[in-house]
Amino acid sequence: MGPGVLSRIADLRAWIFLVLLLIFFETWANVAYGVTFIGNTYNLQSIGIFATAPLLLALGQTFVIISAGIDLSVGFTMGLAAVVSAHVANLGMSHFGLNPLLAMLLGLLSGIAVAFIPGLVNGWLIARLRVPPFIGTLGMYGIARGAAFLIAGGMTVPVSNEWFAYIGNGRIYGVPILVIIAVVVIFLMHYLLSQTKFGQHTYALGASRVAAVRSGINVGGLTMRIYLLAAVCAGLAGALYSARFTAGAAQAGEPLLLSSIAAVVIGGASLFGGSGTIAGTVAGALVIAVIEYGLVFINVEPFWQFIAVGVVIIISVLVDQSQRKLLGGRQDD
Amino acid sequence: MTEPLLDVRGVSKYFGGVHALEDVSMDLHAGEVVALAGDNGAGKSTLIKAISGVHKVDRGDILLEGKPVTYESPQQARDHGIETIYQDLALADNLSIGANIFLGREPKRKAFGFLPVLDRGLMADAAKETMRRLDFHVDRLSAPVSAFSGGQRQAVAIGRAIYWNAKILIMDEPTAALGVPEQRKVIALIKSLKEQGKGVIFISHNLGDIFAVADRIVVLRRGIKAGERKPDETTGDEIVRLMVGG
């Protein structure tokens, strides 16, 4: 079973890459500064927190990309959710006299709820009106961006709510609460993608729309649900952003859109659809977080981050292509 | 004579002013293979689309086991046991044979006694059993169908149909995209379907295939049935004459 072993290694390539990166930074930190990189709990916590938002966006994006689509609007859906969360939490306390805990819950849930709007509109455009995903979600990118800035009044929206701060910065047995939430979402998404009809049909849609339609799958409804899921992930990321910084900002997710796509691609998904895994996406998001955090840790000028992540994206795509050739993704007959 | 599985009586289909089919009749018995021959635009595709529920007929009747049927969608035709295998096969290349057979109707089991998960074991077993019935022996049951040859993929598409107890299989140019050894394999496949008592209608341009496997040959020309022959009572020349006219 040569090809089996090979393809399993290929599936794990993002994880292998992650381990190599950790070894690299560990060695550098040891040699140059005589300190440990991964032995430092603070570093691990920071990387975990740092990775949470792009990872949440990437988890939703994984479904979209496997279905042969793309969602460009998740960054500003996240910003919209962050602003709405902060506003609603403030309103809950100031106007409705809620206690901080209830106001926090209402705020976070509102952030997730508001994400349904861009999600449903994206799904409707793409599923019913057959707008290409790139264009439909590009339009939504602008709409969500404008709406977020309008609601925020062009400024960041500070929240003074100790429960918000606790969710965003608290730790349980040393593990940041944000990381615990992310891990729960990871397992949920892994289950959805690998063990449900929804996940199976997402793969089928990405490989062959015709096959999905002829199998009696409701492709329109499926597409709606995929874009809704991506938006809800972004909504959760936005709500957690406002908790982490105790402030909502419209531009919260702006730099994270490309990170989310990069994480999915580094994780082994094909932008042509039909392949990708949650485990891969998690590794992809961690690779990006480790590069960005690690370069700061070893005192490299921060602008090198962009270059390093860019190089990693290109390498992953090249590896993916040569793997397809090697393993005979047999462009049949 | 026993009642035919499928009885098409005087079917006509118009697209605007174009007569795609005009008063065409044919029947199909269990364990029988009928070849549909005809030039491009002769109405072969329209006829199989009428039978498989894609087109509604404008005149005439379609009877299944003696009962007249009308369907609103291909899904309803499928519920009646009519499966169509198009030339593009419509397989999800990234999924396993089992996942393709069950696509849209995936079986579930409970993990840890409560969590519903896809029953991949059942899918793999069904895939193995189905492929064995078609005399294709595959052991890589978790491999995506893109890893298999053209003939094997054809078998997967057929397997998907017979697993769901199709009585009538309609195949559009099943051998067109295949190399010679694979074509032979598909012809053998059609013969084994016949032995299993299925009714098969297949469209082909290849007279060799038609004569190798068909019990009857229905020839269409410009939407009209130009003739019906048995392979041992006709010649390739006559079939071609019927196809092109004159």
From TrEMBL, chain A:
Keywords: Cell membrane, Membrane, Transmembrane, Transmembrane helix. CDD domains: TM_PBP1_transp_AraH_like (cd06579). InterPro entries: ABC_transp_permease. It is found in: Cell membrane. It is a multi-pass membrane protein. Signal peptide: none annotated. The chain crosses the membrane at residues 12-35, 47-65, 72-89, 101-126, 138-160, 172-193, 224-243, 255-272, 303-320. Pfam families: BPD_transp_2. One of its GO terms (cellular component) is plasma membrane. It comes from the Bacteria. One of its GO terms (molecular function) is transmembrane transporter activity. This is Ribose transport system permease protein. It comes from Bauldia litoralis.
From TrEMBL, chain B:
Signal peptide: none annotated. It comes from the Bacteria. The keyword Protein transport does not apply. Gene3D superfamilies: P-loop containing nucleotide triphosphate hydrolases. One of its GO terms (molecular function) is ATP binding. Keywords: ATP-binding, Nucleotide-binding, Sugar transport, Transport. InterPro entries: AAA+_ATPase, ABC_carbohydrate_import_ATPase, ABC_transporter-like_ATP-bd, ABC_transporter-like_CS, P-loop_NTPase. Pfam families: ABC_tran. The keyword Transport applies. Residues 6-242 form the ABC transporter domain. Belongs to the ABC transporter superfamily. This is Simple sugar transport system ATP-binding protein. It comes from Bauldia litoralis. The lineage of its organism: Bacteria, Pseudomonadati, Pseudomonadota, Alphaproteobacteria, Hyphomicrobiales.
